[in-house]
Amino acid sequence: MQTVVKRVIGNLRAKFNDSFAKIMRGIVGHIAGISGAKKKEGRK
Questions:
Q1: Which of 1, 10, 22, 35 has the fewest CB within 10 Å, making it most exposed?
Q2: Highest taxon of the source (predicted)?
């Protein structure tokens, strides 16, 4: 029974880490895009 629980927790943790990594990548890309756009506007 304990092994099943550990397996479920492991799967949930893996899914969470995967989605968390995607979210972080998206946030970082979004911030980089905003700062890049601001720099372009400042050059005009």
A1: 1
A2: Bacteria
Instruction: Print pLDDT tens along the chain (44 aa).
Output: 789 999 999 999 999 999 999 999 999 999 888 888 777 776 66
Judge if pTM exceeds 0.70.
no
The sign of the torsion formed by the CA atoms of 36, 38, 43, 44 equals positive
Of 5, 9, 7, the residue nearest 17 (C-alpha): 9
Tokens of 24: 């972080």
Structural domain boundaries, residue 13: 1-44
- Count of residues for the chain? 44
